[in-house]
């Protein structure tokens, strides 16, 4: 039985784990293989089709090509070939990188790749969700197709995104990253590209291992233990592999680091960082909703409002009355995972082989936030709350009751107040996600004729998540405790709620969701004829596929009714759709090893998809490419791909939900008061004229909004171009260099209105400036009487096909391995290897409204809360130098992010530029015997801190998924083979 993960975060002073068993041996045996290498094979000799099943017995020569007679399938195609060079650029991360970086979760390596902008990670607490996702080229997790052994993997919710936590890192043979749309080969979702995780399936014997990680501060412990067993079956007619893993990660709270323990803001002119936080404090702030002209002069509830520094005793609120929520928030979220699975294949005779794959994952991740902030307009019965107030406050409330202002009935003893009170008496908010995911695949493959093979399989994957939320407040119960219809509650001052009052207003909320993916695929591959000019045979692949996607989200009554304060409310979601597809590929080697042509080939692919969605229907995707090598040492390659992505279940059918994104309300900025047009728009959308341009219009950096699905969405389309060069100079054996230009444009993209709340605010008040536009209509009637966005009626920012995305840049990869005439272990000589994988991003543009092509958010080299989010450095690289001396490997890794600027040119923040960021990692690997390996190392060797930000941060005063927040981090791992 799994223990309750609430215990992982319930006490910030006690991180003791129940996991006490001795760790087993760990990581991969040291090898001299380069960390990043030319694309590895997915099938080898004797394979019958391009199913993506990895094999380890491909003999690669110094040219990076398989041995004579071998055929392979490279990610990005289903056709078997005799070389590893394709028209589409493929970057490959070898298994050595996972070992030398001390990686247990694959996200730790994937997010260091220059092609990747971090998605959700182990440092994503708010927003969180308990998953790790992959965002290729910054185009979005939902536009990146994740494969395992060349086939679709399971997704975790109605957004149809893969959780990387479900992939066993200890079995990885390598990871292939294909740039550009690949829908013609793999179907929908592959707009940014494809990431294929290749797992070892040919294990023989027993492997057992374990790993332990610990930061220099003595926290953030991570434990892993695993066991894998492989054996031949029935005189080698078949093979089976089974495996299991346990992993646990302990929490770190933001209070454990000097740079995150204080929630930082900025002073009035953004010339300095100051202690910030939330205006919703445990003391409580209560403000009259009357217009300033109607509110009695000198009444403590007017203006900034009454602030209760002691039970029942208030004073006027000042701007420094803030709550530091940081120490109660998680920096590293805790995780506990059980993973089991297996692979098997069996020769049934006649050249036909049946195969089976199975995987099950139980993953528990808890997010924890500071206690619930209650905000909104509430009716307060003066007689009911008088026992909790001193005479001055009672008199001030009775004075308000005598005013004939909007929203008030004179003399009825009830007054409307805007309430801001953090309910610390309930403890922190905790959201526990427990996901049970399983996938089963059965298939058969074999030969049809001497030159043609077939492969057919069916897979079923289901993920079920149970989400339990504690610390929520019932809005209706809270209101009832103030308006006299229930036992009164005392919220007037710090720590005034009694245990009985806490029980009266709190809710334990639960969500459930289930997602199912079914795939049926059949294909044939083979060769047709030869042109007779020295090249290989013309080869084809053709087949059909059926997929069905089903998802359901079931919130409990409190969540679906919107009665919950604390975590985001949401309505039920249910929906499904299917697609039937026909696809084909052709590879045409025109000539090889003739005068002026070492190799010349062209390729093409096409797919017709018939969706059950009426607004998508039938769509075509296609691709074409060419590879030309004038001599053996140099190759030129180029490819064009037209791809599509059908909207996912969440985008189509999601019920209404509530979010709290960071955003700037233009009506709260001084510029709004100075610009007549903006000022008029602010007044027209509900801001009192006297308050336009004052900071009190926006008290918190987060603004609540509602989102929801749209069943009328159409497909997204993309066009991508790549062109590159590959150099393998024969005069310098062991050296390989590639440079590839990429250009990807995605149109008709599904996005929330205007590209999100922050962009919609900017479009309404600063760009479109038309009260009748949909961007301004979204905010009409959603402000309270003080002009603020509160929880009473948040704006609706729904889904639509409105945006355009474009990325452009160059990938560069260098691999070099050579013998080195020095050995400390007495082996005569050693090996030295170097790799560099870098990306220059020239463009990363978001056009939130296609009809306004001149309004473009340029995110290359930028970050920020307006539109770009996580930093997108123009230059990002990871490089490694390894010295392999006998059984000892010493390795140094350098990770680099270039400087980035804030994305909001209209606002001056304290930090407008984050400087270049560099991390150095050091690791050692020892082959003590042929059966036993020991590895150890330290990441962030020089204890580099992240750049600290103010109002333009994501969370924890920085961007914790991009910049290291753990500090110096140690690992040790062992692995046994027997």
Q: Can you put this structure into words, describing what you see?
A:
- The chain is built from 14 helices and 46 strands.
- By secondary structure, the protein is mostly beta strands.
- A hairpin with a 4-residue loop joins strand 22 and strand 23.
Query: Structural class of the helices, strands and pairings?
Result: mainly beta
The rounded distance between the terminal residues' Cα atoms is 30 Å
- Tell me the fraction of residues in β-strands, as a range: 35-45%
Rg, nearest Å: 30 Å
* Largest pleated sheet: 22 strands, antiparallel, barrel
Contiguous helical run count: 14
Shape: elongated
Mean pLDDT: 88
Helix percentage range: under 10%
| Number of DSSP-assigned strands | 46
Low-confidence stretches: 1-69
SSE blueprint:
Elements: H1 6-9, E1 90-94, H2 95-100, H3 107-110, E2 116-118, E3 134-136, E4 144-148, E5 151-152, E6 172-179, H4 183-186, E7 193-199, E8 205-215, E9 222-233, E10 238-249, E11 252-253, E12 264-266, E13 273-275, E14 285-288, E15 306-310, E16 313-316, E17 330-332, E18 335-349, E19 352-369, E20 373-381, H5 382-385, H6 391-401, E21 414-422, E22 429-447, E23 452-474, H7 475-483, H8 499-505, E24 506-527, E25 539-555, H9 557-561, E26 564-565, E27 573-594, E28 597-611, E29 618-631, E30 634-645, H10 649-653, E31 657-659, H11 670-674, H12 676-684, E32 705-707, E33 716-727, E34 735-752, H13 757-768, H14 774-777, E35 799-820, E36 830-847, E37 857-858, E38 862-864, E39 869-872, E40 875-885, E41 888-897, E42 900-902, E43 913-914, E44 917-927, E45 932-939, E46 969-977
Parallel strand pairs: 4-7, 38-42
Antiparallel strand pairs: 1-6, 2-3, 4-5, 6-7, 8-9, 8-46, 9-10, 10-18, 11-17, 12-13, 14-15, 14-21, 15-16, 18-19, 19-22, 20-21, 22-23, 23-24, 23-26, 24-25, 25-27, 27-28, 28-29, 29-30, 30-33, 31-32, 33-34, 34-35, 35-36, 36-37, 36-40, 38-39, 40-41, 41-44, 42-43, 44-45, 45-46
